[in-house]
Design brief:
Pfam families: Aminotran_4. This is Branched-chain-amino-acid aminotransferase. Helix 1 crosses helix 2 (37-50). The chain has helices at 16-29, 37-50, 133-141, 192-205, 219-227, 268-281; strands at 2-5, 11-14, 62-71, 84-93, 104-109, 146-151, 156-160, 163-170, 177-181, 211-214, 231-238, 242-251, 254-257, 290-292. The chain contains six helices and 14 strands. The strands form two sheets. It has a six-stranded mixed beta barrel with strand order 5-6-7-8-11-12, surrounded by four helices. The protein folds into two domains: 2-94, Aminotransferase class 4, branched-chain amino acid transferase, N-terminal domain (D-amino Acid Aminotransferase, Chain A, domain 1, 2-Layer Sandwich); 104-279, Alpha-Beta Barrel (D-amino Acid Aminotransferase, Chain A, domain 2), CATH 3.20.10. The radius of gyration is 20 Å and the shape is globular. It has 293 residues and is an alpha+beta fold. The longest helix has 14 residues, at 16-29.
Length: 293
């Protein structure tokens, strides 16, 4: 998660209770100890206060926080560790991508698998990151910012290497505008920013006639929507990037255009989501998601 400082010098964490819950679930999945969420949140708040001088106060900048736990028992074997170490990594950060809040390009990856039903793809574990490095490097060699993980012969869209994935498009049958993201089925991370966007979409987009959908969708479906002009925009979401617009996706040797005009860096929904979330992160809009240190 991140710590944010506004112009008034106020420091805030964003939805720490959700981060703590996911940390506990992830720890339990690999037989590491769990903890009292309120106690750890309080300790992190004290750390952030001590390290206040390292928190940038300009928009888009923050103190990145990575609570971490590792087993430390000095034996080799397959079993729960008898001891563990919890620590927090903290580092000032700016925009995740060098492009800043500008559209990125993705390469669809179908030759390797990031996660599978019944596995640990929905947990925040180091084991989920290491296998992603080579496909990410391969995508970068070909000029793409990230890879987009596909799953199964249907080529379901799951998530980007560092973000949950979203598409806004018109329904083929009804023409209704829909904001779509993959479901929580064990193959994607339960993103805190993802959950925030779902909530904001239901609060602000549904009254304007949008439909918010969590369902499986395929690259074939995206390609079809792009060809027919129904794919309005696509973007990723995550703690590091917050919201990152997507210009196009390389898939099966062709480029799938994601709806942005050549001189446009972000679609209306991505731009709005970024602004809505940042207002709550920096305390411009008082909200229960914002934890004041």
């Amino acid at each position: 998660m991140k710590a944010y400082k506004n112009d008034a010098g106020e420091i805030r964490l964003f939805r720490p209770e959700k981060n703590m819950a996911r940390f506990n679930t992830s720890s339990a999945r690999i037989a590491l100890p769990t903890f009292d969420p309120e106690v750890l949140t309080g300790l992190i708040a004290k750390l952030v206060k001590l390290d206040e001088r390292f928190i940038p106060n300009q928009k888009g900048y923050s103190l990145y926080l990575r609570p971490t736990m590792i087993g430390t028992q000095a034996t080799l074997g397959v079993g729960p560790p008898g001891s563990a170490l919890m620590f927090v990594i903290a580092s000032p950060v700016g925009p995740y991508y060098p492009t800043g809040f500008k559209a990125i390009s993705l390469e669809a990856t179908d030759y390797a698998v990031r996660a599978w039903p019944g596995g640990v793809g929905d947990k925040k574990l180091g084991a989920n990151y290491a296998p992603c490095i080579v496909p990410q490097l391969e995508a970068a060699k070909r000029g793409f910012h990230q890879n987009l993980w596909l799953f199964g012969k249907e080529e379901y869209v799951t998530e980007v290497g560092t973000m949950n994935m979203w598409v806004a498009m018109k329904n083929k049958e009804t023409g209704q505008k829909e904001l779509i993201t993959a479901p929580i089925d064990g193959t994607i991370l339960e993103g805190i920013t993802r959950d925030s966007i779902l909530s904001l979409a239901k609060e602000k987009l549904v009254p304007e006639g949008w439909k918010v959908v969590e369902r499986q969708y395929t690259m074939f479906e995206l390609d079809d929507a792009a060809k027919e002009g129904r794919l309005l925009e696509a973007f990723g979401s995550g703690t590091a990037a917050v919201v990152s617009p997507v210009r196009n996706i390389s898939w099966k040797g062709k480029i799938v255009d994601c709806g942005l005009k050549p001189d446009q860096e972000a679609g209306e929904i991505a731009q709005s989501m970024k602004e809505w979330i940042e207002r709550r992160q920096y305390g411009e809009e008082e909200h229960e998601w914002s934890y004041r240190v």
